[in-house]
Each structure stands twice: as structure tokens, then as C-alpha cells.
Amino acid sequence: MSLLIVSLDTTALNVALPDIRADLHASVSGLQWVVDAYTLVLAALLMLAGSTADRIGRRRVFRWGLGLFVLGSLLCSLAPGLGWLVAARALQAVGGSMLNPVAMSIITNTFTEPRERARAIGVWGGVVGISMAAGPILGGLLVEVSGWRAIFWVNVPVGLAALLLTTRYVPESRAPRARRPDPVGQLLMVVLLGALTWGIIESPHQGAASPLVLGCAAAAVLSLAGLLVYESRRTEPLIDFRFFRSVPFAGATAVAVCAFAALGGFLFLTSLYLQEVRGMSALHAGLCTLPMAVMTLVFAPLSGRLVGSRGPRLPLLAAGAGMTACGLLFARTASADLPLWVLFVGYVLFGIGFGLVNAPITNTAVSGMPRAQAGVAAALASTSRQVGSSLGVAVIGAVMAAATTGRAGGLGDAAGFQDAQRTAWWILAGCGLSVLALGALTTGRWARGTARRTAHLLGDESPQAPARAADRAGSEAAAG
């Protein structure tokens, strides 16, 4: 149930963005912050939430997460203005960071028999697919009937029910030896992600050479440098940069950033295009994106089986090809009156590509890693997903803002939007091409050799077996 409300909230929200813009008089950058306030905080706190749960109790942290997510949802539904909505979304994300990774740990510790655990993980993954398919339609229906605030109201009763069930049925568990907290590393990571995203979002309005944007760039560079220096000296760092000596791991994190940047940008762009330019209702727009969600639902399990039988290379190549083809198709044909069958083909291509990419990300990240470090590697891959989603919305939104700000029709100006969306689709095609190239370069024999050397460096001679890695890939695909 926790995964259901988190996933539905994410997919349904994009359909509601035009309604939020009209009701709260939000600019493009304001809409970007409605989305990125959540993904940024989530990315920054995922690893902290996991280590805290291991240390003080997984059920306790999970219940806190549910409580904060419900409270954040309630405040979102009552937000009187854009600033309040963004702040409430950030509070939602604090709660959300305690849900997905902690829930997977709870499943692992509650279902100790392999068959029961596999069944539980299968249900977990199925909920992700269902929420992706149902989210845009449910969101569109709620917006049509009750307005955008209903999307957040729905979370309250479901979250409270999940809280009661957790209290009644979930046993408490802790790790035998939890990782030490790293507050300095955590702060540096927050500054890095926040400054980078802030600079990108505000650059169309402030100017690339403005003091604010240059200050954000400087803060991002300095925090990255500080993170590299500080974390390399810690015994138990928040991010162990030695992991990146493994080419498969480094490639997996880069693929996660590129693929989820494409997804974040895709959802943001298509929602605005279908409603602001083509004049569709929220429900009609949700139905139009259904082919993408259905293809993701169909191809995600196929990707998991391919990873288990043939490794991550083939699904990554196919995923990159699908997303690239979608971007190129729309970059070449973008217009205000594009035939619906062209939209259908493009959305199917993107859905196939994104459906194939999730499982090999985690497989590539953990294959060859020491068994003791596989969970940390998977958590870093999950964090990379959220970072990518934040950057995708920031970059694509900045492109849209730069092209439509100052025009009489704003986002509804067909000529301005058309120029912007061509550029945006070229960027998304570049994300897909990056997935394709990284899939080819980081999954070969030489790359696997670097993973073995990294495993030896990290102090465990017995690397994660590919079959076990594939199992983890399925669970992480659900959690991420």
C-alpha cells in the first residue's frame, strides 16, 4: 500500500500540472519545483533513511515515513499557494525516503522462505506496473471530477490504513551492525543536488551569467569537491567512491541518471503538450499516455528474464534504442496538431525502452560487487534514479521556460512551445543514445574484469553471482 500511494502520487501528479498552474498561477519554474522538491529530497535522503532504519528499527522508521507522507499529502491538498505546495511536497519526500528502501528490507526480513519472498517481491513489482498504468488515468479522473487537490487527498486514507496494518502485522527488525551516520557527507550531498537543480531551473529567468546561477554553480562544484575529499577519508562513508572503479557500477549509475532524466522530462513535457497546446482534458491526456505505461508494464518482467538468462547487455541496448527512436521521432515531427497515431507510436517506443531499462540497472550495479556491499550498490543505483528524474524535469522545464517566457500565450503559445519541444526531444533522444552507448561499453569482458578487481579492493573475494544479482535487480526495479 505504501508503494501504491507513492507511485500513484508520482504518475498522477504530472497529469495535474496544468490544473495546478492555472489554479495557483504558477510559472514553468514553479511547476518544476512542484515535481523536483519531491525527487530532490528523496534522492538526498534515501541512503540516510536506509541506514537509520537498520540502526533504530525498520518498522519504526517505516511508520514514521508513512506518517510524514500522509501529513505531507494533507498539507499539499490544503496548500493556499505555490510556495506552500512545494514545501509540503518536500515533507512528502522526507516520508517517501523512509518507505520504499525500508519496505524492501522489511520484506526481506519478514519473508525468510525463498518462495514466499519471491512471491512478495513479485506482488511489490506488480504494484509498480499497475500504478504506472493507472496513475495518469486516475489522476486525470480526479482532476476532472474534483480538481488537482484530490490527488493528494486520496493518499490520506490509504496511508492511514497502511500505518494500521504495519503496526498490526509487521515485526520489528534491525541490522546486526548498522552503518554509522555521516552528517557532513549528507549535508554536502544536499547542497550539491539542491544548488545544481536550482541553478538549472532559474537560469532561463535570471540569466546564465546572473549572480544567483553562478553562485549555484560554484556551490555545486565546491560541494562535489568537498564530497570527494571528505568521503575518501571516512571509514564508513555515505558514498564509497571506490565503487566507481567498477566500470559496470559506474555505468549503471550513469544509465540510471540518463534513463530517469528521460522519464522525468518525458512526463513533464507530454503533460504540458497534451493539455496546454492540444487542449485535451486531464483525463484524455492520461488516456493518451496509457500506451507508454502499458508497454512499461509488459516489458519490465521480460527484461528481468532477459537479464537472468543473457545478462544486462541486450536489454540495455534495446532500451537505449527505444528511447532514442522516440526522441528522434518527435524531434523531427513535433507540431501542435501531430496525428494521434504518431503520438501512439512514440509513446509505445518510449514505454518499451523504459520498461527494459530498470532491471539491468541494478543487475549491472551489483554484479561482481562483494555480497556485503551489494545492498549499498543497489541503494546508490536507486539514488541515481531520483537524481536523474530531478535533472530531467529541471533541464526540460528550463528549455520550455526559455522559449515561452514573455510570449503572449505563455505555455499555450503553439509556436513557442513547438520550438521548445523540438529542442527538448533532441535532449531526450540524447539521453536514450547515452543509455545505448553505456550499455555497449560497460557490460563487456573488460568491464567485468574491473568489477572483479573492485570486489577484491573492497575486501571480499567472492563477487555477487549474476543469478543472485538478477534476483536483486527484480526487487530493486520495484523499489526504485
Automatic annotation (TrEMBL):
Main location group: membrane
Keyword Membrane: yes
Compartments it resides in: Cell membrane
GO molecular-function terms, A-Z: transmembrane transporter activity
Name of the featured protein: DHA2 family efflux MFS transporter permease subunit
Topology within the bilayer: Multi-pass membrane protein
Family according to the record: Belongs to the major facilitator superfamily. EmrB family.
Single GO cellular component term: plasma membrane
Record keywords, A-Z: Antibiotic resistance, Cell membrane, Membrane, Transmembrane, Transmembrane helix, Transport
